[in-house]
Amino acid sequence: MNASAGPLAGVKVLELGTLIAGPFAARFLGEFGAEVVKIEDPNGGDPLRKWRMLYPEAGGTSLWWAVQARNKKSVTVNLKAEEGKEIVRRLASEADIVIENFRPGLLEKLGLGYDVLSAQNPGLVMVRLSGYGQTGPYRDRPGFGSIAESMGGLRHITGYPELPPPRIGISIGDSIAALHAVIGAMMALHHRRANGGKGQVVDVALYEAVFNLMESIVPEYGVYGAVRERTGASLPGIVPSNTYACKDGGLVVGGNSDPIFKRLMTAIGRSDLADDPGLAHNDGRVPRTKEIDEAIGAWLAERTIDEALEVLNAADVPVGRIYSVADMFDDPQYAAREMIQRFKWQGELDIALPNVTPKLSETPGGTRWLGPALGEHTDEVLRGLGYRDDEIASLHERKII
């Protein structure tokens, strides 16, 4: 496994979250060298351990867990017990970053709010992920990524106008929020280290993270009252950018920059459109979207995917087939970039996992170990906090850990 220390070597992260948004943020930091201690309930741990496909199938552990919890240390703690809370307080006193995604107010009820933890560690950065944020009239509502995708505007513009909005097949709202959490944590850490600042709270609302990616919908509505609607596979107002049918499947073609449009039209034998001054710029192409799409569609309908790719790649036009995961495993670009790596998990399973992104030339991230067993690092971490073996044994006996 990758032995690189990573750019975040020496950064200590305490993860108090479950499922997706918080743990994905902590996973990202751990992949680049941070020491991540994940607190889990002794009774079953993070529910993600049992999500989707399991290995072994009967009573096993989620294959997703292997990647979501890689490079993390699992420590089991009963947060309802005062001695369990004390373990968390001691870990937080040494941490640079605490990541949590409980419902707002829960940490305060446990006596583990930022006011308490920062009193003993003024430099602490606490990243808080929740459906609606730590303030506002909705703060106490339960909020999942799917709800955030809806409230943030993504669902409304996704799909075909004659059909109800579909969901994207992954938990994209949680993942978008997690990336915002990582960015916020890094900015707060930089401020503390480079500007002599103190710690602070990074408040990430899942719906706001989705909303942040919604491009021009706010000014378009604010100025013109325009509400962007579902447009199927096309990208509204940016022409041409669509999915088209070939003889044996579909291709995505992005010919929406001015020089690319000219090359695309020339490549498909439509020099009349390539040389039309009215189509030289995007604002002229938008009113003629149907005409342009029909021209591209007619050309592609007579060709296989491979035939079309050969012509359009030669013309330097952005084009691509729609990959399944099986396509990714066979693709030479994925292979050249080592984006799928193989490991041994649980001592016996050959497992393929996605490589770490992004790629840093001098301090790359990597996979040091895969998702740990429940409580695998409890004793080790407690010894590092100064607990004696007899104290640890007592905590085990009393089900504190």
Automatic annotation (TrEMBL):
One Gene Ontology term of the molecular function aspect: CoA-transferase activity
Highest rank taxon of the organism: Bacteria
Coiled coil (UniProt feature): none
Listed name of the protein: CoA transferase
InterPro entries from the UniProt entry: CoA-transferase_III_domain (IPR050483), CoA-Trfase_fam_III (IPR003673), CoA-Trfase_III_dom3_sf (IPR044855), CoA-Trfase_III_dom_1_sf (IPR023606)
Keywords for the protein's UniProt record, in alphabetical order: Transferase
One Pfam match: CoA_transf_3
